[in-house]
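Response to reviewer comment R2.3. The reviewers asked that we include at least one raw input/output pair. We reproduce the pair for Bifunctional protein FolD here without editing.
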Amino acid sequence: MPARIIDGKQIAADLRADLAREAAALRERGLVPGLTVILVGEDPASVIYTRNKQQVAAELGYKSELIRLPATTTQDELLELIARLNADPTVHGILIQSPLPPGLDEEFIFSQVHPDKDVDGFHPVNVGRLWTGQKGLVPCTPAGIMHMLRVTGIDPKGLRAVVVGRSNIVGKPMAALLLNAHATVTLCHSRTRDLPAVCREADILVAAVGRARMITADYVKPGAVVIDVGVNKVPGTKNKIVGDVDFEPVAEVAGHITPVPGGVGPMTIAQLMKNTLIAARRAWGLPEEG
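Raw output as returned:
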């Protein structure tokens, strides 16, 4: 039997609808979540991403601001802006769009966003909170995947999970979240020996390696949950993208699978909006969940 498709597009739409209702209830109390996105330079993909994030925030009823800065912006000028936003009580989430232009120390700049406003979940304090099981802001893609698993009725507790890819944005925080959910986790990378055999042990297999269709059917345990984080452009096409998973053959083996597009991708912005609302509620001294 072919795998059940995990519809990330619908799950994300449902989450956004819940957030919109919660934001509306808060506005009746005079409380408005605020998200500020900073774009430095004119990278075409970044322009699209930041516009989408701002638009979704506005649709949910958040206070949404996009600050566009020229590529010639100095590091001191950017740090001054971040300091001002850190001190602004109407701004609950700050997101700096990556990549930054050459000459700007991206790692240092990101670390200057206050951890409680770091809705990307990249600040070292939030990374430490995640790995020590404390409450913090969690990177959006892994947090969105955990939301998808919950909605689909998949409990990682006691299961074997394998994450392929060890990036700070997806792989490492994904492993931490699964570990915190009581899965037994293996984090793999390009130097993992006999990777297909390791992956075949997984009840939950997360592919976040950035190589088109790398995960083939012989990597997958029958009935496993396969989460495809990859977004890879197909050479010779204008806009076609594929994931890290060879979808059709793997779907014949897996029990559940996310498609590309329409799987993990839509969850990332939805989770960003949830992180912003969490940050706002914490700032107001309210419980995280409304």
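Residues 30-114 form a domain with the Rossmann fold fold (CATH 3.40.50.10860). The longest helix spans residues 8-27. Further pairs are available on request from the corresponding author.
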